[in-house]
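FW: tagging you since you asked about this chain on Friday. Here's the raw sequence from the shared folder, copied in full. Didn't touch anything.
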Amino acid sequence: MTTPPRLVPLLEQFDFACRRLTDRMTGPAVDSGSGTDVEVGAMSDEEYLWEPVPGCWSVRRHTEGPGPRAALLVGAGAWGYDAAPPPHPVPPPFTTIAWRLSHLTGMLLLRADHTAGSRSLTRDDQRPAGDAAGAVAAFRAGADAWRQALLGADDAALDTVGHCAYPYGSDPEDPFLEVVWWVNQELLHHGAEIALIRDLYRDRPR
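HL: got it, structure written out here
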């Protein structure tokens, strides 16, 4: 199927953002944005779970229980990420790379399922990773799943309200093209946050 012309720039933006974030987490280099490669090391497990300030939300073993101001750990398997039912804590807790990356991965996997899959997955089905390599692999799988869902969308689908039935956002009330745009901005801004936390970890006091 031919990709609708108005989807092409969003798909290209998504691909670039995914590649840049993955490179930023794995190295050995990342595009600076101007075509110049900047050396970067692979993210360690310690860095992935690093809590820069007290009271962070993160990914934790279910046996440990939720972190400060969190009511539960969401996810299947040994690990879950801190969460709380609405109303959420104010101000929002600072979140680790592990939390932000798990958030992105879950958003991609679940939206793909609620667009071109079973439309049944929930956050409780996600399996957050307790290590950096596992988290990067899960992110790549989520990005691939979402990209495949996008490639199945024609012009009619882009205009269809509720084409994505993702239950944790306004997707059931929005045209699919708006959902695609929203996913891109989530990827861009959380990717930038992860990059900044990597810089802070590199330059932290020893």
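FW: The mean pLDDT is 96.
HL: agreed, and The radius of gyration is 17 Å.
FW: great, closing this out.
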